[in-house]
Specification:
Helices cover 76% and strands 0% of the residues. The chain is mostly helical. The protein is elongated. It is a single-pass membrane protein. This is Protein translocase subunit SecE. Its main location: membrane.
Length: 66
């Protein structure tokens, strides 16, 4: 079983580990956000086109497509 540490030691360890965190700059955050939005838009367009194509194909095969 792991050895229990007292709360003071635990908080010191948490502060030490939190100091090691490297936060992204504002520019990196903005660029990442824009890239995520672009990829989401591209994925939605792809799935819209795939859905329309499959809908047309199924309608054509079933003879209800006109």
């Amino acid at each position: 079983m792991a050895e229990r540490t007292n709360p003071f030691t635990f908080l010191q360890q948490v502060r030490t580990e939190a100091a090691k965190v490297v936060w992204p700059s504002r520019r990196e955050t903005v660029i990442s956000t824009i890239m995520v939005l672009i990829m989401a838009i591209l994925a939605s367009i792809f799935f819209l086109l795939a859905d329309q194509l499959l809908s047309f194909g199924v309608g054509f095969l079933l003879g209800v497509g006109g």
